[in-house]
């Protein structure tokens, strides 16, 4: 039993250890760096009817976003989104990504709002700390979104692809 | 003395060590700190430093006082419907015993299957497997089985406070608890987590219906069900072997009981209505916990159980406290992204393995990670899609990966006493210590893992080609 505990802690430690790093690229001035990743999110959704075949929802989601690629701004972020979905006109939202140091990246989101079409695009507006002055864009689509227990909603976003241009203050150590 | 002090100090060392370790890239400080406290709480129980109640009370106090999570998040488990269902089911079970109905059912069961403790265990496990497809909530199913198991144990003279006599009760309790895990894997409709996972599989491109699920699950699940009472008897001998005279004695005693009393009738009818409510809850849009509350209310209203009876149920309050706290902490770990982070990092670190090695590794990791979850559905929602994705991208055939994870999502629930809310009813009966529950849980999960990997995987591979 103690062995299992040690095994479990070892697994958790292994999972929380350094990621298998691809060599990080340093961007030339004005150059964009590309990244990809996935996002597991959970939160709440409140829906109201807006007439026949039309619904409006407010959503609040948060979860782990893990990024890959030499141009990623960080290994991963705790990503939070709030937004309004109208099944007729689509989705509009705002997002904040927070890393392990508490530095943040802010973005606004737009996208389609139906089960069949759910591509979402984000525009990186600015950031704090090492992300100060960062700009860029990204996009993803929901692989699935479903209701869980006690009114919670869960989803997994895949094909997350984006690019960022580091700001002048983002000259941190390679990660 | 020194050893005991060291043991009690160890969880604090674990908590502080993790807490002050640099926050891993990709996590936030609250998620990391919550993990430090949660890991220390579970570790303290595993090494026998504290009871679960002590560990969970210290943990919830620490995470709120340090501002790691908000009070309303830390206490949310006290209003969780699954937690409440466990508590009510536990109290209603006492009504079945008090009314005398439990004794009648127990004598009936002993008269039919009481030739040995093994016979009793098989009758309980097979009964559960037979009724499981009609119950979309395995917690509710636990609420149905528990009074029967309790009555059988008590009828056989097995009491939790008797160090030797409790073993038969403990054996039957654990067999029933683990039986719930396998019967949930046997039928697609036997737990609410299964249809959710099936929807995720559907998004990945594989349609699974009731018949296809049963075809894939039948062989490994039936093998697991048949092996379960035998394996538990080896690890935790009930010390009651063959009792060939018991069935005849039970028949005589049953005849001596005469007709059913008023309280027995009320309890039986209320219980049957509750069962109907649980079975048809989805169609009638009835909340499972509300059905339990109504049944509880009726039993109180008609005087089958009284407020005095409830005040004597101190164990129920203890269970409510630790379960609610652990439930909320595990949910918050998930919400703060820790579970997804660990799952995704572990799964994505398997690149380059052959698909068979990747398949086995993913299933083993998926099962082990359940040590951190207090709900099957939460793990399915947080990690099922991630593991399925990584496995199929790594070359594991989709049906094999899907069914491997689908079955694991049920049988892993027995790995800890809090691994599924249905476990709690049995775990809180007092027949087994926390350490016994963790040890038995680990060993039986290992046995299930072996059965589903060694027998289930070739079978699924063969029938789903």
Strand content of chain B: under 5%
Gyration radius of chain A (Cα, Å) is: 18 Å
Q: Distance between the terminal alpha carbons of chain B, to the nearest Å?
A: 61 Å
Oligomer: heterodimer
Low-pLDDT residue spans of chain A: 171-175
The value of Rg of chain B in angstroms is: 22 Å
Largest interface: A-B, 45 and 55 residues
Number of helices of chain B: 23
Mean pLDDT of chain B: 89
Number of strands of chain A: 8
Report on the architecture of this protein.
- Chain A has one helix at residues 2-16, and strands at residues 33-49, 55-68, 76-86, 90-98, 104-111, 119-127, 135-147, 152-165.
- By secondary structure, chain A is mainly β.
- In chain A, strands 1-2-3-4-5-6-7-8 form an eight-stranded antiparallel beta barrel.
- Chain B is mostly helical.
- Helix content of chain B is 75%, strand content 0%.
- Chain B is built from 23 helices and no strands.
- Chain B is globular, with a radius of gyration of 22 Å.
- Chains A and B meet through α1, β1, β2, β3 and β7 of A and α2, α10, α18, α20 and α23 of B.
Give a quick set of tags describing it:
heterodimer, A: 175 residues, mainly beta, AOC barrel-like, eight-stranded antiparallel β-barrel, 54% strand, elongated, disordered C terminus, B: mainly alpha, 75% helix
Topology:
The complex is a heterodimer of chains A (175) and B (465).
Chain A: H1 2-16, E1 33-49, E2 55-68, E3 76-86, E4 90-98, E5 104-111, E6 119-127, E7 135-147, E8 152-165
Chain B: H1 2-20, H2 29-46, H3 52-65, H4 71-74, H5 81-99, H6 101-113, H7 117-131, H8 138-155, H9 166-186, H10 193-204, H11 210-235, H12 246-256, H13 262-279, H14 281-284, H15 288-301, H16 307-311, H17 314-335, H18 338-348, H19 355-368, H20 376-393, H21 398-411, H22 421-427, H23 434-463
